[in-house]
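Annotated sample (chain length 277).
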Amino acid sequence: MAHRLAAMNDKTMTARGFGVAGALDHQIVATLSVHAEAAGYSTFWANDTPGGDGLAGLAAAAKATTAIGLGVGVIPIDRVPAAQIIVRVEELQLPQDRLVIGIGSGGLTKGARAAVEQAAIELDKHLSARVVVGALGPRMCEIGGRSSDGVLLNWLTPDYLPTLSGLVQETAAAANRPLPWISAYVRVALTGSAVERLNAEAGRYASFPQYAAHFERMGARAIDTCVSGSADDIELGLAAFPADADEIVVRAIAADESLGAYQDLLRAAAPKGNQPT
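Output written by the structure step:
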């Protein structure tokens, strides 16, 4: 599809997005999306989980905003197949000119890569929204490069980003596809109890075999892919990620699930020069 969020295709700088869990209260989601738009974030993301419909969260954000990109990352196709995603996007009347749909294999094991590739092709055929593949390792990066508009990387160190982004670009070029859009989730927390929550999440993911293999491949711990501390610490940590990605998404790990806790982090991690007062 020709209509692919053209305003977000500037490769001269790394944009910054802001992401929350799909299960977060939709009133809080709507308010945060307004503040993210005002603060200069390029996109607002909602994770899709069994307890939180990411697309529904984006619908709340879409009604409250006018221009910011809206991303869902990632919808597991074993739970929500491509045909259902298409219907859901249309039911919710999501603005496809602003929409990024991230898909992943979820709990699939046998045939997972082929299933993701087919889903990406189907979504691309029926929607004008940008479609990206959630990728940890090289094989999913290759699928994202040759069969979708790009990738949403996750749990990676700044040093490993060029390896994966280069692979996505090479695969896209070999398939005669347009320059891929590369986004990367980075989990971010302010000081205090938010850091405790961040450490707990890193430990939980490190216990999953698929993620443990990914961390071993990078030669890093799960927590090494995260950023925490003061506003200055967060800016330095995010700036360490090279411009190989078009966008770094601040995957917010707040002290609690209140609006105030998320607002504090949104302000602290806002794009440089745009920190709201």
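Annotation: The first helix runs from residue 26 to 38.
Annotation: The two ends are 39 Å apart (CA to CA).
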